[in-house]
Amino acid sequence: MPTRPSGTGSRDPQDHPTADRGHRGVRRRLRGATVIAAVAAVAATVLAACSDDTSSGAEVTLLTHDSFTLPDSVFDAFRQQTGLTLKVVRSGDAGQLASTVSLTPGSPKADAVFGIDNTFASRPIEAKALESYRSPLAANGSADYAVPDSDDQLTAVDRGDVCLNVDDSWYSDRGLAAPQSLRDLTEPRYRDQAVLLDPATSSPGLGFLLATIGTDQRGWRDYWSKVTANGASIVSGWEIAYNQLFSAGEGKGAKPIVVSYASSPAATPGTSAILDSCFRQVEYVGILRGTRNLDGARKLVDFLLSETVQRELPDSMYVYPVQRDTPLPDGWQARAPVPRWTINLPPTYIAANREQWLQQWREAVGR
C-alpha cells in the first residue's frame, strides 16, 4: 500500500498583482521534455566573460535543464553585482538532473544545480549530494515552498503548476460547453477530446498523475480507466500533445483538452486552465556538495531569489515567481492567474510510491 501523506492539498501562500510591463508572446514552455533514464553528455555554454581573472573564484558553474533561459541582461547584472562570471551547463530535464547530481555526491560537475523539482527532490537529498544553505532572501516567499525536513538543501525559485488546459474557442465556435473540472473528462460529451501524457516519460505527465492521486487517493485508478475508455489519447511528451495534437497549439490538432501548465494560457489566447486540476510543481536551486566555489554558489542562490531574476521568470520560462510581490506580466492575471489551491504531495511521499503508482497507472490504462 502507498505511504499516506499528512495532506494532499494546500492553499497557495501568495498572490501576485498585475505587472506594469509587456508580455512577449513567445511559447518557450519546454519543461515537458521527456524523462530519460540514461545520463546524456552535457553541453556547456559560457555567458558573458569580460574579465581576465581566471582564478577559481571568478567563475561559478550552474548545472540546469535544457529549457533554462534568461536574458543576457540578467547575467550581466550577476557579474556586476558579484564579480563572478556565470557558466551554464545544460543536462536534460528535472529527472535527468536529479540522476546526474545523485550519482556524483562530493564530486560535482558544477557548483550549483537549478531545475530539480519536487517530484524528484528526494533523490539528491537522500544521496547527500547537496550543501545546506538558507538564503536571507528566502523569507520573502521562497521558504513557503521549502522541501520538508531537508535542512535547506534546496531553495525554491519558481513554480509551474501542471493542470488541464482547454481550447475555449473550439467549444464556443461549436456552441458547446467546455469542461470545468477534472471529472468532466469521464463524461460521454467529452469523448475523444483529451490528450494526456505518459507519466513514465513526461515530467508534466507525472505531475498530472499526481494531481489525480491527490484528488482521489482511493478512486484515481478507476478515474484513469474511465478516461481512457472515453477516448482520451496518451502520448509520450508535452511537445507532441500541445504543439501537434492540441487544437490551439502550433499544429492546430483535433484535441481541445490537453495537459499543460496553469501559465500556458498567457502564451495561447483563447485557452484557459482548469484550476481544480493543478499539481504544484516547484523548481529548486541547490549548492552541490564538494563545490570549489561555495561562496560563489551562495551568491548565485541569493541572486536567483532577487527581483532581477524573479520578475524575468514569467516571460523567459513561463513559470510563476515564488517571491512575494513580484509583478506578473500584463495579461497574466486575466489569462493565467496563479491557482489559489493546488495538489501538493511531499517529495518523500512521491519517492516512496512513484514506481508503484506508475505500475498501477499502466494497469488502469491497459499498458
Automatic annotation (TrEMBL):
Any single biological process term in GO: thiamine transport
One cellular component term from this protein's GO annotations in UniProt: outer membrane-bounded periplasmic space
Biased composition (Basic and acidic residues): 12-23
Keywords: Signal
Residue spans of biased composition, Polar residues class: 1-11
GO terms assigned for molecular function: thiamine binding; thiamine pyrophosphate binding
Residue segments, region Disordered: 1-27
InterPro entries xrefs: ThiB-like (IPR005948)
Name of the protein in question: Putative ABC transporter substrate-binding protein
Organism expressing this protein natively: Gordonia soli NBRC 108243
Taxonomic path: Bacteria, Bacillati, Actinomycetota, Actinomycetes, Mycobacteriales
